[in-house]
Amino acid sequence: MSELFGGVDKLHATLDYHMFRHNMLASNLAHVDTPGYVPKDVSRDDMSFDGKLQLEVAKSSSSEAAGSIPVGPSYTVFDDPSPSASGLDKNSVSLDREAAKVAANQIRYDVVSVLAHSELADLEFAANDGKG
Length: 132
What we know:
three-stranded antiparallel β-sheet; 3 strands
């Protein structure tokens, strides 16, 4: 029975990830005027090898690489400073960069939401013996 919902479970986990990431990115935007604030981002631990490699390279180039925090079974929060941190307050939040991340994350969330809806509609169709 669980194999029937395997695709839905993966889509549900992906939606949860994008919602969690959205909240983290919104928090970065809320701290745009906080002195010394370093923006944070979230990675999925179940990504491909290439994705893990890129994340490790990004973390190793950060002075706060040891500051990554495992949040749950599939997410890791890490510091993601802007390469152009400027100003006397040492705040490294870039409004443009964070807004672009929020927009890209929203697009991914919307696409996965449509896929989940389609998967659930297919299951409903099958449960009703093809009578829709």
